[in-house]
Amino acid sequence: MFVYEKKLQYPVRIKNPNPALAKFVCSQYGGPNGELGASLRYLSQRYSMPYPELKGLLTDIGTEELGHLEMVGTIVHQLTRTMSPEEIKKSGYDTYFVDHTAGVYPTAAAGFPFNAGCMAVEGDPIADLNEDLAAEQKARVTYENILRLCDDPDVSDVIRYLREREVVHYQRFGEALRRTLEKLNERNYYVMNPAFDK
């Protein structure tokens, strides 16, 4: 089903290590609004979508989110690849370092590890698509917060690209929700469904 190209969707070339910045960026790897949760959410939701085009959309976006996960992991790795013990302590990266050294581990910026509870899968197309719209906006906001704290143009360039993709995904999910609402029936209902309210 997947064809893996051994290159990133967008190039990541970070010249200057910065473990303090890596702490923020890591949240888009395994934080509550990060790429790991997004990819798992969409690839799980596709099974209960009633229309082939929705299954395809969720597969496409879920797969792209896996590529974004790889990009964010690459950013974190490049920001932490040559840290000295002094830099680790000074940057506040020491608590992460004790448990994971310079490994890329799915965690939020606040330090708590990835939790599958952040990926909603309801099995209802309207609930799931609304969740997806909200998830893309939360990811966009997280990327914008990273941009507010980022002073490295190499990192900002990639983060802007990822933020732009969140906006595109939001638009695609909006189109999917509109198409779904146009096809209301007993397999896809909203508020009231005559099949259940007899």
Would you give an account of this structure?
By secondary structure, this protein is an all-alpha fold. The chain has eight helices and no strands. The longest helix has 30 residues, at 153-182. It is elongated and about 60 Å long. The N and C termini lie far apart (42 Å). The model has no long low-confidence stretch (mean pLDDT 91).
What would you call the shape?
elongated
**Would you list the SSEs in sequence order as H and E?**
HHHHHHHH
State the helicity in percent bands.
55-70%
- Number of DSSP helical runs: 8
Major β-sheet annotation = none
Low-confidence stretches: none
The SS-based structural class is mainly alpha
Beta-strand residue percentage: under 5%
How large is the radius of gyration?
A: 19 Å
Q: Termini, distance in Å?
A: 42 Å
By DSSP, the count of extended strands is: 0
What is the residue-averaged pLDDT? 91
Question: Any key phrases for this structure?
Answer:
61% helix; 198 residues; mainly alpha; 8 helices; elongated
Short description:
The protein is mainly α. It is 61% helix and 0% strand.
Q: Helices and strands in order, then pairings?
A:
Layout lengths: L18 H7 L1 H4 L4 H11 L6 H29 L4 H7 L2 H7 L24 H25 L3 H30 L16
Helix pairs in contact: 1-4, 3-4, 3-7, 4-8, 7-8
